[in-house]
Amino acid sequence: MQTSPLQDSLLTAFQGGQERALARVLTLLEGGRQDSRGQDSMGQELLQAVRQLGKRSRVVGITGPPGAGKSTLSDALISVYRARGETVAVLAVDPSSPFSGGAILGDRIRMLRHTHDSGVFVRSVATRGALGGLAQSVSAMLSALEGFGFDHILLETVGVGQSEVDIAQVADSVVLVLTPAGGDGIQAFKAGILEIADLLVVNKADLPEADRFSRALSGALELGDHGFDSWMPPVLQTIAPSGTGISELVLALERHQTYLRENNTATGLEARRLKRARFEVRSSLLQWAEQLTGAAGNAVFSRVAQGQISPLEVARTLLEELNRSSLS
Amino acid sequence: MQTSPLQDSLLTAFQGGQERALARVLTLLEGGRQDSRGQDSMGQELLQAVRQLGKRSRVVGITGPPGAGKSTLSDALISVYRARGETVAVLAVDPSSPFSGGAILGDRIRMLRHTHDSGVFVRSVATRGALGGLAQSVSAMLSALEGFGFDHILLETVGVGQSEVDIAQVADSVVLVLTPAGGDGIQAFKAGILEIADLLVVNKADLPEADRFSRALSGALELGDHGFDSWMPPVLQTIAPSGTGISELVLALERHQTYLRENNTATGLEARRLKRARFEVRSSLLQWAEQLTGAAGNAVFSRVAQGQISPLEVARTLLEELNRSSLS
């Protein structure tokens, strides 16, 4: 795939390890949109270029309800990895409000804290607009962070909804962070998110109900469908601010990575990477679907609203139009 | 559109007001899937048939974080509507766990409570599988409930995530239920969900921080972008179990419906119906996208995972294949 001279110099700086080039690439990839004919926009060539660098990081998804302490936990992990001289990028998927106009997470505070450490890179993705766009932005930005050569990438998402389940598909290991308080457990059950967790962390384990809650989680996990040779998610306890349980978490993450490498088939690393690729393709399709309906005129939707034509017929027509234009 | 003899008798029973026929139709629509060539499956003809009945209900979306008291609030609304002799259907989008094997909400309790009242119909949709499928199931089931002739439909979703934002697009009025406790406000801000709320309800208004929280919400709303003639979401206080504030909520919902009818253009009822039609078309496209990636073989994703081919190229090829097969 060809790149422009401007992109060439950007890529050179990127490969040279310049964080400003990384930041620029991420911005291009976050904003990059395909047009309605499915043609490349500026970000796509760049994306393929960074993917072709063929570098891989250990991607850890960290998810859980707001207030569970995900950021503090990430910080504790960062400290451990940095002490070993390993580099870490944090990609925080940050549901933003049109009222606040952007991120209101504690990321800024963290960014300040790590601002003089070139081995740590923090970036937020705001979840404006529709889901397809977010999914595509996240997987593209993840590829860029990998291409830049970080040893670890922490992918933080806030919530226990479907978008978290979706986004977790791009991680090698998924850590679900819950607290004994606030009905987190029930929430996790209801969202079906236990299913995607490779490790469960009961944070704020100094709260009174921590042990009972941990046992309940273990019990729920045992009800799940685990094969003889498959990974059984451990339930860990942490108190993130004091660092209690963090080294156990690091160890458990390493055990999971080892498991993935050693079971490089149905449930292992290869399967994870295939899942991620599938997700990336699906994200492209989703984004097209959204753009197609965005571009169609009100007249057709008015007929749908009046029951004169079915949504399915319109969907089929839109797809045929897309193909006629991109095939011509 | 043609229907089969079996569907004809089902439709006759449906139009005759038989709840068992409604239940059967809903099951067919929930499970209905288009095949990879975009052909109709059993549910699609049925869907178009119930849509062509041309009936409309008042569709109220009720959303908010778990534990905010959405179900109790819905119950209170049901009581008011039933006292007037109006019929109500509840469609509860219920994030289910693979471990629990289905819905674990309080719906069953409610169903028992209303089981002898033929003017109330409660149905859950489990959010198994991917987002496109859920969105399509919900909009199809909504059309069936409207076709059956309910005066009101309450569409409950649990959470403050993107799927709630999505699903709220099919409602005429969206009620966001929050509580003074538990950082709900921040959650609502972060998820950008204030933007989609037509009415805000601070439930559990007997909690100490209720007034301060309500004022903060009003303040946040005033920062939003409201035109001179557009609807300003009111902030209401309720204590659902005791019925406090419920008649004010009913009144506010009626004011919103009147507003929608009287501003039948950019922000009114017509605009809502167009938005819903757009959502329905988009859902069909999303589901195809998911089916396309589901059906493709591992070999192609393996090449994506190794950086040999971009996700975008694969997406384009899949679309072209879909079109070749459905155009031939």
Explain the layout of strands and helices.
The structure is a homodimer.
Chain A: H1 5-15, H2 19-31, H3 42-51, E1 58-64, H4 70-83, E2 88-94, H5 107-113, E3 120-126, H6 131-148, E4 152-158, H7 162-167, E5 173-178, H8 184-190, E6 199-202, H9 210-222, E7 235-237, H10 246-262, H11 269-295, H12 298-305, H13 311-327
Parallel strand pairs in A: 1-4, 1-5, 2-3, 2-4, 5-6, 6-7
Give me a quick take on this structure.
The structure is a homodimer of 328-residue chains. The first copy, chain A, is α/β, with parallel strands linked by helices and 328 residues long.
Describe this structure in words.
2 copies of one chain form a homodimer. Chain A is an alpha/beta fold and 328 residues long. Chain A folds into 2 domains: 55-280, Rossmann fold (3-Layer(aba) Sandwich), CATH 3.40.50.300; 283-327, no CATH class. Helix content of chain A is 51%, strand content 12%. Chain A has a 7-stranded parallel beta sheet with strand order 3-2-4-1-5-6-7, sandwiched between helices. In chain A, helix 2 (19-31) crosses helix 3 and helix 6 packs across helix 11 (269-295). Chain A is globular. Chain A starts with a helix and ends with a helix. In chain A, 53% of the residues are buried. Chains A and B meet through helix 3, helix 6, helix 7, helix 8 and helix 11 of A and helix 3, helix 6, helix 7, helix 8 and helix 9 of B.
